[in-house]
Amino acid sequence: MTHVEFWFDPVSPFAYLAFEQLPQALEGLSYHVTYRPVLFAALLKHHRHKGPAEIEPKRAWTYRHVAWLAHTHGIALQLPAAHPFNPLPLLRLSLACCASGGTPNRRVVEAVMRHVWRGGAAADDAERLHALAAELAPVRDPQGDDVKAELRASTDAAVAAGVFGVPTIAVGARLFWGFDALPMVAAAMRGDPWFDGPGWVQDAAVRPGVVRRD
Fold this sequence. Notes:
Strand content: 5-15%
Strand order of the largest sheet: 2-1-3-4
Structural class: alpha+beta
CATH class: Alpha Beta
């Protein structure tokens, strides 16, 4: 059985799409998934990069693109009333649903993701967040210092592992970024020989021809 790690932040529509499509993408494979919450904004800050919703032309394209991807893959998706939003309450809630040091199960992550990406309501609405917490019945206080520390530690671990965006899917030492990487994940898990050739290591080591200075 292959161990798969799924790094996510519910603020990302691509993380939602990848989460929904993962079972279909890995159909026929034996695997176990660990779902790891991470604060996407902290990854952006660490790598000095803007999110797609912070660049106006890219923002418009992103929403069109995810709507098209959802349409073509048969995934229900309605954009939330406002985006981006502060995902911290949702990230902390997901961790609060498991014992100290644990990770949320698929049912919890599904509820959190669908809270954002189905129905078109505000993801950070206080009443909706309260209802979601009542549904999930966390075993710990989402606002507890232990939960907050675990989210920071998870984000730090993601940075240390080389994660720069969400979703990131880890299979062993290999990291795969984005919804469109799901076929690569499946191929790697099936033992595609391409991953033992130059495509994975050497092609990724091409030196930069130009380095931009800030």
